[in-house]
Amino acid sequence: MRGRSTITFLKAPKMNPSHALPSYLEPAGVGPWGVFLQQVERATSSLGELAYLVETLKRPKRILIVDIPIKLDDGSVAHFEGYRVQHNTSRGPGKGGVRFHQDVTLSEVMALAGWMSVKNAVIGLPFGGAKGGVRVDPRNLSRRELEHLTRRYTSEIGIVIGPDKDIPAPDVNTNEQIMAWMMDTYSVMHGATSTAVVTGKPLALGGSRGRRDATGRGVFVCGRAAAARIGLSLEGARVCVQGFGNVGNAAARCFHDAKAKVIAIQSVEGTVHNPAGIDVYKLGAHQQAGRPFAEFAGASVVPNESFWEIESEFLIPAALEQQITVANAGKIRTRVLLEGANGPTTIEADDILTANGILVVPDVIANAGGVTVSYFEWVQDLSSYFWTEEEVNGRLDKIMSDAFNALWEAAGEAKVTLRTAAFTLACRRMLEARHLRGLYP
To answer: Is the pTM of this model over 0.85?
Structure first.
């Protein structure tokens, strides 16, 4: 008919919404995000009436990819890619670190954000999960260039962060100074000093006492609680640590102070071993002086691949994710594996360790000390009332010990691993919040 047009709509094939994942969320391969999805899947059967919402955990709430152009010292302009992922905010604002590393990928940042969601829910903190990263090797930048990178990255993600929206913190290759620059940039953008926008800051800018060692201290607290559960004495216990940065160093010192023997340490420079025990304070001073691992007089250099075969009571992977795989899991000879890093064990390796009778204390509780004290810092900033280091450490010890013991009981009742129990507990808490809040509109 004249004056009218006909539009034909093609009928799309019927599709199960749970299968209609965006391409970048497909659990292809063994990437970090795929590992996270597998871990969520293992908990799904235990979610009961909340299982209908589990797909919300398989899709990050928000993914921001930004271009970071900066002028280098030689006058040229370089571009870097940055990310900020908010996985879930049903229980509170996003919370998670920012890492600067040349191998950062979107899959990695998504998985780290998911693990932060689980971690905060397991501990009982009023946060959701988030994570950030910039694909850069900071060793190749001058201090001026690093500051420009940090400030431009902060300005680009400034639309999604804030004290009541998303609170970044330090992670791999970032520190108190990076957080100070981030806080200042955000404050300038908003015309008022906002100390609570990031945590892990210097004390002079609203940082918390005890924050620097908090993650490693939390690893020790979980190790101590696990040892008590299986009747293992800390005194004389052999400890191997992969990674001698902030987390590994602090964990090693805590075990050393508890009269355990740290017998092997692996860093990017290599592996040192001493069956009689390494003085971790001397090694730390040696490293701080910029001297190579190989020149440390208190231990012998051994091949990196032999690290995993050294017999111990505690093994602490405190470096990067996916360090323990099917290639080395069967060689590990330890009683308790404390995951100081995020996602250091693949799902297949996890099964091998369990089959071999090794108790795995998962990252989502073992390394939660950092975010716990970050929570303390956030609370102190918002109230402008600051605690002593003794108060911080005492509250950290209690929260982590209580959370571990509750998780141990839950795992025993359900006859599952600590990791599956942690994911089940966390997913229930997140989905209960999602259910009660409902869907808008």
So the answer is: yes
